[in-house]
Structure formats: structure tokens, C-alpha cells
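C-alpha cells
________________
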Amino acid sequence: MENKQIFVEHPREFFARTQVMTRSYMCIAESEYSNCILVENADTSNFDDFELAEQSNKATAHALKTIVFSAMCVEAAINDYAGTHLGDRYFESHLCNLDVVSKWVVIPKLVCGKEIKKSSAAFGALKQLIRILIIHLKLSTY
């Protein structure tokens, strides 16, 4: 028998995920949250009004970055999960345009046959995260 490689086609386009930013987004969100806490807990007893306003602006900026990158992490995670288990082409053709909350309802149902519990704390936190993100995005356009 010759030493020929046997190629078996996999049902997914590829397993090694590319352009998956879940971990990067999570690290940024975590870092920004830590920075927000540090700024909020800083000793401001000797600050004048200008310095207090600057400190508040810094905390707000860190908080907004935390929200945005947390939402990006959650969406990147479900997109990666769908691409891995359902195939990238199927995801791009049928699921990528769903809103983030709908993706977390539909994709686990398609992959596992079970739906996320809509009464769970995690689902409530997801909806709240997306709602806060949308509110801040709308406010930032004015």
C-alpha cells in the first residue's frame, strides 16, 4: 500500500475559525470595566469641579466601551457557534441578519434542539445589554 493521504470532506466549510474576535472583545470589555471601577473608586476629595467632570467623563467612556465590547463579544460568540455547527454558508444565508437576541433563541434550537429559557437570568441580562447598547447608540447620534 502506498503512503497516500486520504482526504475526507468535512460537512462544514472549515473547522479552524477565522476572524473570530470573541476572546479579544471579551478582554477589551473586561479591561474597560476594570478601568471604569478604578476611575469611579479613585480618591477625588481634592479635585476641583473641572477635575470631577473629567473623572466622570473618563468613567462614562470606560462604561460605554464595556457595554459595546460586551455586546460585540456576545454576538461574535453566537455567530462563531452557528458557523461551526451549521456551516458558514448556511449562517450567512439564513441567520446572520437576525438581531442578537433572536440569534441566541434560534441558533441553539437549530443546533441542540433546545431553546434557551427566556425566563432565565442570563437571557434577561442579554436583553438588557442589547437594550442599553441600542439606547446609547441612539443617544450618541444626536
